[in-house]
Each structure stands twice: as structure tokens, then as C-alpha cells.
């Protein structure tokens, strides 16, 4: 299963703001387990969820946008 490195960014920003996972999930309006899966790279979250996260974290959406899975190899055409 691919993992998404932007979950690490979300967790770091959340922790920098002194929010625990439960507080953050409540402010985002999502289940704690779902937010945990996003932070751990097991889910990527919908665009609406990402927007809510960015708003709670007070950062631009681009700061926590989807990134390529860590185990994806990019292919360059020859």
C-alpha cells in the first residue's frame, strides 16, 4: 500500500501548534481514526478534508497537498 509523505507534514504542523490528534480531528470535523490514517500515510483525505486541515492549521492548502506515494517510481520517456 502506498504511503504519502504529506501526512508527516500535517502531523508536524499539528504538533507545532500544540494540538493533540483528538483536538485536531474535532476541529477538522472528522473522526480521529481517519485523521490518524492520513497522518500515517494510509489515507490521502478528500480535497474538502485537506482544505479543512489547512484552515485549522492556518497554512495555505499547498503546504499539505497530495504528493506522489513514497514507493512510486517515476518513469521518464526516453
TL;DR?
By secondary structure, the chain is an all-alpha fold. It is 49% helix and 0% strand. The protein has one domain (6-64): lambda repressor-like DNA-binding domains (434 Repressor (Amino-terminal Domain)), CATH 1.10.260.40.
Which second-level CATH architecture applies?
Orthogonal Bundle
Helix content: 40-55%
> What is the percentage of strand-forming residues?
under 5%
Tally of helical runs: 4
Count of domains: 1
CATH topology type: 434 Repressor (Amino-terminal Domain)
Give the name of the CATH superfamily.
Answer: lambda repressor-like DNA-binding domains
| Global structural class | mainly alpha
CATH class wording: Mainly Alpha
Protein name: Putative DNA-binding protein
Domain HTH cro/C1-type: 10-64
Organism: Actinoplanes missouriensis (strain ATCC 14538 / DSM 43046 / CBS 188.64 / JCM 3121 / NBRC 102363 / NCIMB 12654 / NRRL B-3342 / UNCC 431)
InterPro entries: Cro/C1-type_HTH, Lambda_DNA-bd_dom_sf
What report would you give on this structure?
With 78 residues, this protein is mostly helical. The chain has a single domain (6-64), classed as 434 Repressor (Amino-terminal Domain) (Orthogonal Bundle), CATH 1.10.260.40. The chain contains 4 helices and no strands. GO terms for molecular function: DNA binding. InterPro entries: Cro/C1-type_HTH, Lambda_DNA-bd_dom_sf. Residues 10-64 form the HTH cro/C1-type domain.
